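Before a computer can learn anything about folding, someone has to put a protein's shape into writing. The outcome of that step, for a single protein, is printed below:
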Amino acid sequence: MAKFLEFMLENQDYAISVNSVCNISQPNKIFRVPHTPDFVLGVTHYRGYILTVIDLKCRGVVYGRIIKLDGIY
């Protein structure tokens, strides 16, 4: 029997296979970085690494679709 992780983003329900999930953790503080593009929310510290945090909506991923200037895929 397949198992799924269910979650909600902007009032839309989603589910992915638990086999695709590596880890679930509490969100860390995000530190803004000056002079970065709008889609870069900042950086965060996670398990000894500094990670860039991006806003997928600003990068064109909305409700599971990738939006390009010439259309929706």
Remarks:
- The radius of gyration is 15 Å.
- Confidence is low (pLDDT under 50) at residues 66-73.
